[in-house]
Write a structure and sequence with these properties.
Blueprint: H1 8-24, H2 30-63, H3 69-76
Length: about 80
């Protein structure tokens, strides 16, 4: 899809590739590696939480009609 924003899975793959390249070049200290690992863990948690919220929102929106009954009736007249 043209102009599509990258999904979190694609971004995570990009981040992992960049991390791997930096490690191979020896440009990452142990302290920085620990921070990166913590950030990856947090990113994974937030990504899963976001997906959970999206599913709950979709389920809720299916239960409730998007427009009021009066508006729908007026549009169908």
């Amino acid at each position: 899809m043209k102009g599509r924003v990258k999904g979190m899975d694609e971004k995570n793959t990009d981040y992992s590739a960049k991390k791997r390249a930096l490690l191979e070049q020896g440009l990452v200290s142990p302290q920085v590696l620990e921070l990166i690992n913590e950030l990856e863990t947090e990113l994974d948690f937030l990504s899963k939480q976001n997906e959970s919220f999206r599913k709950a929102l979709r389920a809720k929106s299916v239960q409730n009609p998007r427009m009021s009954t009066k508006l729908r009736d007026a549009l169908y007249e």
